[in-house]
Amino acid sequence: MHKDKQKLLESGLSYEVREHPFSNISRENRIKIIDETRIKSLDDYKVSLESLLKIFEEYDIVTILSYLSDISLMGGMGNNKVKSFSSLEQSELEVCQALVFHIDFEKSQNKGPTFEVFQEIIDLLKKLLQSNILKMHDSKLLELSEKDVNIHHFRNYMISHTQYVRNWGTFEQINTIASELYGQFDNELSESYGFTISQANKFFSSIISSLEKDATAKMLAFRKIKNASTVEEMVFTYHEFINADKSETDNFFKFLKKHNITDKEYIFVELIYAHYSDVLLASHFIFNYEEVANILNIEVDVVVSLLNTFSYQPKEDNNIEHIFLNNPIWTKPIIILDKESFFCPNPMLYFSFILKTFDDLIDEIEPIKLSKSKAEYLEEKIEQIVADKLPNAKIYKSFKWDKYENDLVVFIDTYILIIEAKSGKITDSALRGSSSRLKKKVKELLVAPAIQSQRLKNKIEYL
After folding, report:
1. What residues does each domain of the chain span?
2. 392-414: b or e for each residue (b if 16 or more CB lie within 10 Å)?
3. Taking 50 as the threshold, does the pLDDT of residue 79 lie above it?
4. What is the pLDDT of residues 33-69, one digit of tens each?
5. What is the DSSP string of 402-450?
6. Which residue in 342, 326, 322 sits closest to 334, CA to CA?
7. pTM for this structure?
8. CB 66 within 8 A of CB 345
9. Is the pLDDT assigned to residue 81 strictly greater than 70?
10. Closest CA to 112 of 72, 66, 58, 49
């Protein structure tokens, strides 16, 4: 081990070997630690969930979600006396948005949240997600065979992937693949749902573009405000940024004079607080039906159809546990406010789950055609990529031999590549960790094509 370590150090790399924290702990103590962690996590989960729901009933939900979405775009701001807030993962914002639908809106007070409330929400969200994972730990795992432990670990990996992993490609890649794959169903989509995939892509892209533009303008404005040489310049720059009238600017100066506030750092914090606690912030995430239709040059009816499909309406039987592994807002990220406006704090969800969304939509109307199209698309894309990267290779598609067939066989000099294209998807229940479904999908998508390829490899080696 020392030799390997020294070799890595000579190459400019290094690593540190640490003892496993459980290596010298007795089996009894391991059981005790696991069980105590589980019990504490169950309590943390309950307390954090109840606390979040209580906060959501007390404070304005739109402002809360707007703030959380904003910091996820901009990151926490921190400089000297300006407090830096914890970063927020997209999965945490998703859980927060879904929890909103579990409060009693008749009890909602819609108070303006403070910075302290925002930070408490972030801390509680992180504790909720962490305790949700830890509460599933069980000391009985120590009694399992190595095979069953590996199955358990694989199941947990799939659960973690479902809950946390997003954005499987670049924005351009996602947009291109989805358009190519589902564009051929535009007639069916338009007839059944009232929009095409290109219209849906442009709809959510325009929202993202608007939010990114606002975030950039805000970052530049805050930087300019922070670097202002005088208090007057700082105040005028901020109110110019928010398009405030003269009376509002004058009132702020009166507030500073009344409380004898002259410290620039303190005033900067006050201006940021004013921005994040004001309805102005929420307005960036609220969109008007007709304005969106005009921007995209589409009929308002198309916008309404998009909203009907991508807005979430809570059901009476909605299970709060589903927010982690079957979150309804993954495919329905919009909240309709009234007949003229809608609220969309997390539009990237559309592109994160675009394959699932359109698979589900099209599967309702053309399941057989969808399955065939996906298989053909995948094989064509693989052939195209191989031909592009290996221009001198000989490619054989649907290679038949004896009574068998392989999707692609590629000859490069003395090498042969055997490629199997599997366009099947992992079912929702498998993504949530169903052992039986996972086993079935692993066999179908990994084991079966491996056996298929191995069979041809053995035949070639035999010859």
Report:
1. 27-141, 171-362, 366-462
2. eeebeeebeeeeeebbbbbeeee
3. no
4. 999 999 999 999 999 999 999 999 999 999 999 989 9
5. TTEEEEEEEEETTEEEEE--------HHHHTT-HHHHHHHHIIIIIHHH
6. 342
7. 0.84
8. yes
9. no
10. 58
